Amino acid sequence: MNTISILGSGWLGLRLARHLRSADTHIKLSTRQTEKQSILRDEGFDVYQIDIETGTDFSQFLNADTLIVNITNKNKDAFENFINQIENSPIKQVLFISSSSVYQNTNDWVKEEHQFENEDSILWQIESRFRQSSHFLTSIIRFSGLIGPDRHPGRFFRHGKQVQQADAPVNLIHLDDCIGIIEQVLKQHVWGEVLNGCADTHPSKKQFYRHAAELLKQPVPDFNQDNASSYKIVSNDKAKSLLSYQFQYPDLMAIPANAYE
After folding, report:
1. What pLDDT, in 10s, does the model give residues 60-101?
2. I need a surface site. Which of 40, 76, 159, 172 has the fewest CB within 10 A?
3. Which residues of 220-234 are buried (b: 16+ CB within 10 A; e: fewer)?
4. What is the enclosing helix (H) or strand (E) of 137?
5. What is the CA radius of gyration of the chain?
6. How much is the pLDDT for 161?
7. For residue 71, is it left (φ>0), alpha (ψ between -120 and 50) or beta?
8. CA 158, 160, 163: angle at the middle one, nearest 5?
9. What is the DSSP letter of 115?
10. How far apart are CA 161 and CA 221, in angstroms?
11. Spatial CA neighbour of 162 closest among 201, 205, 203
12. DSSP label of 101
């Protein structure tokens, strides 16, 4: 029996756990919320209340083959303690879910290369600490903005919220492709790598969020085109070539309405 521990049961983590669960894969799932434990147990998950900032003993949760880290916490000291516990656990490989926010705004394409990374980013520093450990293998997936069920981009700019840098390109990825990329990393045992997760297309914010609002028959948001654009365009070439991954939603402007349900 293969055991995967997933740190974080939020929007992506819970859906990922549901997808990976099978007859030969045991899923351990964490939450910080006491009231959420019973809900997750009712779904049949092996649930642990974990908050890495408490510094408590996580050995039972870390008694697994693979750890997927999928939380937004950026407390370096808390992660240092957590990594020390991983190093003293049976964990063989770690998949760290990160963000393309670790890249500098180059006003051009960015790839999984050091020259594009922002070393001042706390998230990048936490990534690096995982990769430096000799006790387990680490792969990093840097996802761009997440969209899908309960995260409809047509609702991102409601109630008069203005879209800044309207001419800048968007970097987004649908939930199903997040799960698809993670699944292929696990299936193909792709460890020691950094991969971007982002759709093929990068329409301007004005194009995309106008389209998204129209899908919902919502008022088109207000766009600010006066401020100078500072942006990046995230490349997904490596994920497609290394994993032979075919995106389910490569074209952001062609995602059907039911893919957000």
Report:
1. 999 999 999 999 999 999 999 999 999 999 999 999 999 999
2. 159
3. ebebeeeeeeebbbb
4. strand 137-143
5. 19
6. 87
7. beta
8. 80
9. G
10. 7
11. 205
12. G
Q: Which helix (H) or strand (E) holds 39?
A: helix 34-42
Helix, strand, or coil here: 195? strand
Measured between alpha carbons, how far is 189 from 51 in angstroms, rounded to an integer? 28
Asked if 212 contacts 152 with a C-beta cutoff of 8 angstroms, the reply is: yes
Q: Tokens for 176?
A: 């199903």
- Say which residue the tokens 């990769």 belong to: 131
CA atoms within 13 A on the CB side of 93: 16
The pair of structure tokens assigned to 171 is: 């970097």
Backbone dihedral angles phi then psi of residue 208, each to the nearest 5 degrees:
-70, -50
Q: Which of 9, 133, 146 is nearest to 68 (CA)?
A: 9
Nearest to 194 by CA among 91, 106, 96, 76: 96
CA 135 to chain centre: 24
Distance, CA of 167 to CA of 186 (rounded, Å): 37
Q: How many CB atoms lie within 10 A of CB 55?
A: 12
| pLDDT (tens digit per residue) in 32-70 | 999 999 999 999 999 999 999 998 999 999 999 999 999
Using DSSP, state whether 15 is helix, strand or coil: helix
- pLDDT at res. 6: 98
